[in-house]
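thought: fold this chain, then report.
action: predict
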Amino acid sequence: MTFGAQKLRIGLTNDDGIHAEGLLSLARELISRGHTIRISAPAKNQSAMSHSLSIYRPVRVEKIQLPGELFRGVVSFCVHGTPADSAKIFSSEISRDWKPDIVVSGVNCGYNVGHPVVSSGTVSAAREANYCGFPAIAFSTNHSATDRQYAEVAQIAVDLVEKALVQQLPKLSIINVNLPVIERAQFKGFRLTRQGNACYVEEFRIKKNVNENIENQMDLQKHPQEDPVSESWWFVLEGHLVEGEDESIDTDYGAVKAGYGSVTPMGTFFHNEEQASLVQSARTAFNGLLLN
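observation:
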């Protein structure tokens, strides 16, 4: 299902890092449909960085060539900074000659629903892109997705991106989309949703020794639990997502749990007065896709 023959210029970013499969799957799908892409993404995983910007240190940006014939000629910026830093590159000097029609963030490894949306680097990258003047959509899926499943999710995501641009999604739009891990043929469709109150039950736990697996993931060095001189400890955040009291099918988590794609207008500002008009704008933009 492809909406029209309009070819788009699409900026891609994320918080999982420039080599994450979610981003690469989106890139492959967009290229295969004839769209022009430019990538600006963190050099390493920057999950849960929220809207952090690098104010007190310079940000190094490398122009790299991603592996594979498909990516030959694709401009890719590897950003040694945060997701919001990466999104901001699209409005910087090095992108002055190329402005995207839309910025897409993701596909994130793990749902961004309910309370965790606030700390999401994926959603915040979309928000920063919007602050820079571009309509933006953030995509997330279940953390259990395989490479093949990311490819299926990317097809569904690009359907929505194409529809949004054809219908001229307003510039002051940030759309948070969560997609189930499901084959495209079995996908139930999209539902317009509101942010629910799912949350992570989490806490910092002391690690006696930071093991090799954590070291690789978080760039930590091995240290004992307690330093007898300076009395310092290593803590690692652990937790899991739990449903909120109200997780009906009209909420982000309720919809995705039921097998639908949740489409949640986030708005540019953190207040509720604009929500009604944003919902109506999203309903118009995605007319024909939404099931409610």
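thought: worth noting. The chain has two domains: 9-195+247-285, 199-242.
final: tokens above.
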